[in-house]
User: Fold this.
Amino acid sequence: GDNPLTIWHYPRLGLYIYASTLAILHQAVNRTWLAGEPFGEVPLSDGEILRWDKHGLTTAGHFTMTYPIYRPWHPCARSYQPDRSYLRTLKNIASALGYTPEDIDELLEAGYSTDEIEEELYGIPGWQEYR
Assistant:
C-alpha cells in the first residue's frame, strides 16, 4: 500500500521498534542510546501482516489490497452503488444543464456520490473545472 512502515530489530536487546516512515525512525533512534546498537530491518511487503509472540517468534499472514473510494474530504472506504432510477434522473438533469451522461459516469468513477454530483449541478462553484 501507500504506508511505508519501517521496523527495525535489535537482536542483542530482543527489541523491535517501528515508525510510519524510515525518516521518522532515523530521527527518533538518533536521539537515543540505540543509535550505536546494531540492528536489522524487518522486510515487509504490501498486504503482509506480521505477528510476534511473547517468545519473539514471527508469523506472517497476507491479505489482498483493495483500493476503496477515496476522497480527501471523506476518507472512509465504502462500497457504493447508486440507485439506478435516481442516477437516470440525475443524468437527465445534467443533460439539460449541458453535461453528458459520460461526465456523470466519470465523476462517479472519481469517487463522487450522486448526492454530491447533484449539489454540484445546482451551483456549488468549482465543479465545472473538472470538465
Notes: The chain has two domains: 6-62, 84-130. Residues 12 and 63 are 31 Å apart (CA to CA). The mean pLDDT is 80. The longest strand covers residues 6-10.
